[in-house]
Amino acid sequence: MARRAAEYRAQGRRIIDLTLGEPDFAPPVHAALAAQEAAARPLGYTPANGIPELRRAARHALERDRALSYTDAEVAVGCGAKQVIFNALFATLGPGDEVIIPAPYWASYPDMVRLCGAVPVIVPCSAESGFRLAPDALEAAMTERTRWVVLNAPGNPSGATYSHDTLAGLAEVLRRHPSAMILSDEIYAHIRYGEGEYISIAQVAPDLRERILLVDGVSKAYAMTGWRVGWGFGPSELVRRITAVQSQNCTQTATVSQIAAVAALEGSQEVLAERCETYRRRRDAALAILRQSRHLETVEPDGAFYLFPRLATSDDLAAADTFLEAGCATVPGSAFGAPGHLRLSFATDIATLEEGCRIIVATLDGIPA
Ligand SMILES: Cc1ncc(COP(=O)(O)O)c(C=O)c1O
Hints:
binds pyridoxal-5'-phosphate; about 40% helix; 13 helices; seven-stranded mixed β-sheet; alpha/beta; Aspartate Aminotransferase, domain 2; aminotransferase; Aspartate Aminotransferase, domain 1
């Protein structure tokens, strides 16, 4: 849809693009300055697993934000959270292995699993359940072939987070299936609108620590998607295998990006709260418009920067086409395993966002935008 929106724009048509999956902010100034300074020095290769300063900064940030401690040998650094996840799956999956993926999901998970020759097992989670995986649904999906269970909170595209109790319920199920690993993708942990601290399954179930890969990075929190720095915390044997895969595909993530990531993690964190507040204002403005439509039901997201309304029609592909023709690009829910929904990104300025939402509501309800 983003590509089609760009084509329409090239033809001179005005298209509001609500498909974006990345922050519309610049990186923190101290990160950009650290990169500028580093780029003028001779920078060679780094260890496949990144510079020690980055592993240390990532560990300290996790201690600071989520009160979880890991050793240096328990951190894997890659070209974004995406590569760490791919490396982990590639290092552990074989033909016929199964990976449980709650839907709606980030579209990359099932494709990565298939690329590794394994089988994605999709577990639908309804809007009524707040798009959260329930413990009994997890239990029903587990088999002796289950190698990984994916948890992503705040979720892309749902924005849903998990309560302590739900995570405890999921952990109870996971204890009964000791051969399954848990991939906790926490890349949006800093973009949340609720009260209180982020809760990771690694905090709720410390006894499962040796089975959890907790993934994070600078992309979303620090608006550094293009810098390609992410990491995972997990058992040292898994980290060793992830690093082995890393070293034979792209060696390491860019040295200058690693240095900028250290600065982002160690510098002032004020920008995180400021940006959350901006996202919250955008979310509320968009919700206020979308909720005027009789044809949309929109759950308020707890985090991330997406709205995921349910359409009155089940044909989300046709709906997204209609909205594009009317001037607003969105992503159909089918791309995330949730037909009948639409993903709207609010990683864009409020005026543009409101205009896009008005186009959608006007198109659905037959009223002028
Ligand atoms: C849920 C989720 N995980 C991981 C990523 C990838 O993050 P990175 O840029 O660090 O590879 C994204 C990016 O869209 C995402 O939405």
